[in-house]
Amino acid sequence: MIEVRNVIKSFEGRTVLHDISCVFEKGKNNLIIGQSGSGKTVLMKCLIGLIQPDSGEILYDGRDLLKLKTPDLKMLREEIGMLFQGSALFDSMTVMENVMFPLTMFSNLITIEREKRAQFCLERVNLHGAEDRFPSEISGGMQKRVAIARAIALNPRYLFCDEPNSGLDPQTSILIDELINDITKEYNITTIVNTHDMNSVLGIGDNIIFLNKGQKEWVGNKDQILTSSNEALNNFVFASPLFKSVKKAAVSEEFAKEFPNG
Amino acid sequence: MPLVKSVSTLGSYVLLMKKVFSVPERWSVFFQQFIREVCKLILDSIWIVVIISIFIGAVITIQTQLNMSTPLLPRYTVGLATRDVLLLEFSSAIMCLILSGKVGSNIASEIGTMRVTEQIDALEIMGVNSACFLILPKIAALVIFIPILVILSMFTGILGGYLVALTTNVISVSTYIYGIQTAFIEYYVFYSLQKSLVFAFIIASISSFYGYSISGGAIEVGKASTNAVVISSIFILLFDVILTKILLQ
């Protein structure tokens, strides 16, 4: 579980995160959603320690990220897996070397064991026959899967995904969402997904935090989001006619449940 | 304001170097990276060093001959002057200026691209000291092997002069060989190698710094690459003066 307490972050006098407090639960897909510029990337960067907040606490199962000494911070980082928006695979390494990289750096496994583990991770993300190819030789969807395989290589306790569906076709997006969901449940890890893909929100959103202008506007899950009366949330989530009709259907269903006799 | 910016940049450079000079997480990985950098930065530079040195050696021989037509100077002075120009200045300073263009831009653009594509962030999040992992093998490769390239440049430059003597009537081969053996001061070679060590560090560290400090996109990578070459060239020339003053006087 990751707990965020009263996090504030400003850049050159402009406050980007206003006193954010929230909880990201273990074994759940925790989604951070919001418009571009709402502060979700800054929040995620604060969570993983790439940006230092001005004040507040970020607790990883009780360990305050901002107060950890270098060796403890290093240990914590080994428990974190991260899927970047652009996959961030190492260009100079093959797919296999990319997945083996965290194992080479942080495990005491011998080469054969590392290869075995990397192969297992690649199979887990349904990627076969691409081991010897370089990232530039595989598709965007395959790159994302390699990045997930690399992220889970060390059995992380926390998985961060920054816009995992960006640049992918709808079918591949669903596959990536399913993969993230399966891994979260299977390994019982705390997964945080930064997204503005509404299919992801309605598909895997166990716990959703909606940021609006740097403030936590709404918290709920994928079922509650359909019937929420929060205007900013509704304007953001149900902006397209397709999602408006989904919302309308959900509200009608809710109404019918509450008032079965009309 | 430019002074404040310069001091701030210097501070960032020092902090980065502090991060670079730490114990690598895995020595085996460090050596792998080191070998990779040697292949990429040094072996790929051999051809340019050889070609430029041969031609410059040839040109120095021809020009020295043209400018020393007085009978008061012995003919072998051409060989002697060619050797000393190569040993004292060309093979260390000028060759390192050329290498700063080739190797420096390569380093800055490689690290810069890794920065903009979040590969450096990925390393940091994994708990890897990205500065040490990426920059230390480059500095080690250049500091160890650029002096060897300098020695290669000295030999091939002298060979260029020899080829001129062999194929033209500018100077006879025997006079040229006599010239390059006359009044040879061994210290000039060590002086040149000492300079090249400093220049190698300047090329690797400044180029890495500019690549590592990028924020933005592809345009910034181009800018960083240019800045890396310009700034490392300026520092090579500055330290050339300082080291010449210290080591030769």
Q: What is the domain total for the residues of chain A?
A: 2
Based on the structure, what is the oligomeric state of the protein chains? Answer: heterodimer
SSE class of chain A: alpha/beta
Along the chain, the helix and strand elements of chain A come as EEEHEEHEHHHEHEHEEHHH
Q: Looking at the structure, what is the overall shape of chain B?
A: elongated
Strand content of chain B is: under 5%
Distance between the termini of chain B: 37 Å
Tally of DSSP β-strands of chain A: 10
Q: Tell me, what is the CATH class of the largest domain in chain A?
A: Alpha Beta
Please describe what this structure looks like.
The complex is a heterodimer of chains A (262) and B (249). By secondary structure, chain A is of the alpha/beta class. Chain A folds into two domains: 1-79 and 158-224, Rossmann fold; 88-155, no CATH class. Chain A is 43% helix and 23% strand. In chain A, the strands form two sheets. Chain A has a six-stranded mixed beta sheet. Chain A has a four-stranded antiparallel beta sheet with strand order 2-1-4-5, covered by helices on one side. In chain A, strand 4 and strand 5 form a beta hairpin. The termini of chain A are far apart. In chain A, 38% of the residues are buried. Chain B has helices spanning 2-20, 27-42, 46-67, 77-116, 119-126, 130-167, 173-181, 187-212, 218-248. In chain B, 84% of the residues lie in helices and 0% in strands. Chain B is mostly helical. The mean pLDDT of chain B is 93. Chain B has one domain (32-248).
In short:
The complex is a heterodimer of chains A (262) and B (249). Chain A has 262 residues and is α/β, with parallel strands linked by helices.
List the helices and strands and how they pair.
The complex is a heterodimer of chains A (262) and B (249).
Chain A lengths: L1 E10 L2 E11 L4 E6 L5 H8 L7 E6 L2 E2 L5 H9 L1 E4 L11 H12 L4 H14 L15 H13 L5 E5 L7 H18 L2 E5 L3 H7 L2 E6 L2 E6 L1 H6 L3 H7 L3 H18 L4
Parallel strand pairs in A: 3-8, 3-9, 6-7, 7-8
Antiparallel strand pairs in A: 1-2, 1-4, 4-5, 9-10
Helix pairs in contact in A: 3-4, 3-5, 4-5, 5-6, 6-7
Chain B lengths: L1 H19 L6 H16 L3 H22 L9 H40 L2 H8 L3 H38 L5 H9 L5 H26 L5 H31 L1
Helix pairs in contact in B: 1-6, 2-6, 3-4, 3-6, 4-6, 4-7, 4-8, 4-9, 6-7, 6-8, 8-9
